[in-house]
Design a protein that fits this description.
It is built from 19 helices and 12 strands. The protein is α/β, with parallel strands linked by helices. The model has no long low-confidence stretch (mean pLDDT 91). The chain binds tryptophan and iron/sulfur cluster. The site of tryptophan has 15 residues, from β3, α9 and β6.
Amino acid sequence: MNTKLDPWSSSDITDYSKLFEEFGISPFDEILPEIPSPNMYMRRKVIFGHRDYGQIVEAMRTGAPFSVMDGFMPSGKVHLGHKMVMDQIIWHQQMGASAFVGIADREAFSVRGFSWQKCREIGVDEYILSLIALGFKPDGLIYFQSGCESVKDLAFELGVKVNFSELSAIYGFSRETNLSHMISVATQAADILQPQLEEFGGPKPVVVPVGPDQDPHLRLTRGLAGKMNMFRIEEREDTKTGRRYLSVRGKAAQKEALQELKKRIPGNVKLYEAHLDVLEVSINQYLDENNKKNYKKICSSSNPQEITTKIVEEVVGEVAAEFGGYAFIPPASTYHRFMSGLQGGKMSSSAPDSYIALTDDPKEGAKKVKRAKTGGCVTLEEQKKLGGKPDECSVFELMLFHLLGDDKELLEIRQECISGTRMCGSCKQLAAEKMYEFLKDHQEKRELARERLDEYKIIYKK
Ligand code: TRP
Ligand code: SF4
């Protein structure tokens, strides 16, 4: 089967394991034990996959700088699916990440045909207010793509490294695809790489928490990160001695930059015409000469080989920046499962009963929960005998994704359901009450957020 991922048509992903094989997304399980205090979505396996999340875990552990980045297309109502992404942004922010949130008005303009005015209204009234109400801290940056010069400039630069064949291979773009849609794709890649620009502190690990439908953007951006870089660092092996070393390759006409690299990396370093071989780094000398911002990161490992790599990466980043080049680290990502629609099937913005908006009247929200499809049986007798199916129950899903913070309570409910001692009425009652409380509280916080908007760094379209 060919699992197609398309960011612009809600693809129905039925078998997540395919994503591992076909697209090289790694299972989240394998990295979960290393995460200091995993959030609810991680613990409950709502987040099922990742790319390169190890670099983020390490930054969280060592206190090295890292970022979380995400974007929202201002296309309609902000709902529980967006809450899931916002919660993850905020969690990373609490774990020490500098946070970047882009409102993708270029995407909404080109794909949905929305006016700038409409993008701004939806961007603020729906997304930004909820993001702040959920706990986004004012030191993060929020921007509308079309108001952000650095993103627009970077998008244009990235465009040099993207051609039409690649876009049609990744996104299925055709001869009829309009140019602005393509530009919006480059803009999204720029969103993701922006945190690594010099003005934001230079190269660093960046994580983008998304649903699997957004993975094409990550594949494109990770490829672009490498193509944009001034140097490539490769691990080589000496065929005679079997010793491993690092080779730093520059693009044409970067002689001075290579010389500068040689000057700054103490140890056994050989300079050639178009590359540099780093056979050994004098770690102590480097640390002495550079009592460094990244000292902690560099020394987080006791393995000399790893320390060497980190030093080379650091120097390469500095020199690239000084010579007007880039040293992007390919962005990391995490992937979460989608919630199903409250009536079963998919959530759809054209069917308001299938989802709960964060701006739904709390009473209406509670009613939607009560009308939702469960995994229970047709009759009570049957359910007592056979038990229910929590894994096919949208009420259970609401509790799992959003409403119950306590893992133990959730597991008990699951157990009671399966064994037939719990009936759907009591779950619906509980979930409806919790939903009412959540929406009421969230909406109060949204109103407070409206008053506090000017405490935040927000770049609007001029
Ligand atoms: N394409 C995303 C959406 O449809 C929005 C988006 C824009 C985004 N820029 C991003 C997502 C950067 C992740 C990272 O909602
Ligand atoms: Fe869902 Fe609860 Fe009914 Fe089980 S008892 S199917 S968890 S609503």
